[in-house]
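[Q] Does anyone have a clean structure-token version of this?
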Amino acid sequence: MSKNQLQNYLNWQSLGMRLGAVGLALLLWVFVVSENEYSMVMDMPIEARNLSAQKAHKKEVPEFAQVRLKGPGRVLFKTLLLKNFISNFKLVIDLERISEEYDFYLNEYYERYPQKVVIPPSFELEYIEVVYPDSIHISLDEYMVKKLPVNAPVFIKPAPGYTLVGELNIHPDSINAAGPREVIQEMQSISTIKDTFILQDFDLNVNLNVDKKSHSLIEYSQTAIFILQNVEAVSERIISEIPVKLINVLPNLRLFVNPTTVALTVVGGVDRIADVNPEDIQVTIDFAKQWVSGKNYYEPSVSVPEDILQWQDLSPRNLELVVTKEIN
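[A] Here you go.
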């Protein structure tokens, strides 16, 4: 071991001994003063109970209040350590008789109803006062349930040589939202959290949580939404025997197209294009828009399914159109 390494080791040993001495001194101090009476301000959870089943909160109730308590030092010390793990350590607000709006002035309320300050009997603590907030405003509305569609604001970028096939599948595609009528009536949809998936080269299967930030008072029948997006390697396939259709033909005319079928190449997901049939592709000549007297050859319009990336190499590209009048 070098001289510098030895020095660093001794420094760490010295620091550890100092911290240990401080901790021991603090522990001894707690034992010495633990029987003395002190007052201390600490957070106590607030529980709003007895809310009518026909009512919902329009505004959030604070989770905690700062309360001044008095008791032996050892009890206060124990309370600081354990208060987050004790179920019967809280301030209770009774909403049973509240219809719409009400202000609870906390010190007056707990002076009148001291039993609403819940402290375990084994804790030798005395409630003194609420320091903050001095009051809590309760605002209630009618409880309403509404079924709404689910949106998933996800961005998926496939890896090079891959493509997204079909629409994003969301399951379930609608869930129930419950809460104050004023809020529920304005809601048109429910959104999951936003997420991004880059260089995706396999099917995306993921659960996303409902985004609760914008509507924290709303309850949802389901909070995990399953998202599925098919991702496939890009490939090509020639589709032949695609029928040519004549549309918007004027009355008293007979039209003949030659040839009656065409072929082309579709580009898309390898499994998706394997399922493409000639009938899935629309090849048309619009007589009303395209016909010009004396012109014999026309290039048709082509429409492929939305999840096909592109089409190319139409053969033949121009079709002969023969127009004759019907003979009565």
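[Q] Thanks! Anything notable?
[A] The chain has a mean pLDDT of 90.
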